[in-house]
Amino acid sequence: MVSSRRWLVCGLLFAATAINYSDRQILSLIKPLLDQSLHWTNEQFGWVNAAFQGAYGVGMLAAGYGIDRFGTRLCYAAAVAWWSCAALAHSLIGSVRGFVWARIALGVGESGNFPCAVKSIAAWFPPRERALATGLFNSGSNVGAIVAPALVPWVAATWGWRAAFVICGSAGFVWVGLWLLLYRRAPGEARAAGSAAGEGREVERAIPWRRLLRYRQAWSFIVAKFLLDPAWWFFLIWLPDYFKQTRGLDLKLSWKHLVTIYALTTVLGIAGSWLSGWWIGRGWTVTRARKTAMALFAVSMLPIAFISHFGNWAAVGVLGFACAAVYAYTSNMFSTISDMFPRGSIASVFSLGGAAGCLSGMIFPVFCGRVLDASRAGGHIASGYGLLFTLCAASGLIAFGLSHWLAPRFAPIGLAGPGA
To answer: What is the pTM of this model?
Structure first.
């Protein structure tokens, strides 16, 4: 019974994440249409996305605090309802400033998704299953990224771009009803899921933020999120424009390439998320399994530095592997929080790292916009994208090296102590 309930929970988390990413990706998919009506620059588009990231980061700090104290059931429902209203509001806007405010509202709501999901996974799944469960719910991001390129162009062509926000925004309210109906946090079942793996050490206690920031283990997650999140957001935000500007493929042609990239990301990312759990099941320590997997994924990001040397479909394969590598690295990285911290502080640690990722996610889109505007003015837009892909390629190895230095072992902090 416990096993079936926890996989039902995972399915609900998957659905929320799919809706989450569908809502946030619409803007990048309709950018060519908005370019014609708003006449904005790449830098202005970058600032619109930066507004989302800033609100997402601030909202995540508040979300982590609230979730650790008030629980996931009501907080998750409130978050999805909020971001669904924000997505619907996009359909009423016709200016750059309006999109800035709409993205701020969307970011505040969506900030609750991952802290709620990661805390739910930690409550219901034993350590050897957490990376896989995280990978499965996180695959909703790729399903959303697959569905959106396939659906949004058709909807925009048939009913206009505003209809895309209405349809995707409405889906969130259906999810809220199902969540409140089906999800019941049963402490006895949560303890049973933990005791199946001998997890009596995990107590529901919250560590104050000022103490959390004294742990090198917390900083290992914060630093990795700061470095890896810009690469993931770059893949989500700029790939439609990349195919149009450098390969002459507008959305009517490039949607097949985008769908293939995110389909590869989903399949390979789930396989990568499963890998560390498989090694743990074969007797490897949690530290050895997670670090081996993350090192492998970091190396797998390197080929995108040479993206300009590949044809269209070869580039799709390289990008699919790189996106899957970021995805699988992130799934394992999420699991390290519950490897090291008590359950009562998981959402807080995640939120601190998420806020760091949002800070870099604010800076990088604006930087991307300036680089691309400058390279376009010089007639070398491909070189601008080449620089950005190189930075993303290097981010994985840098993140792995710094996080390994900060947390050589994924041991419970009660055994290691601050600064260890």
So the answer is: 0.71
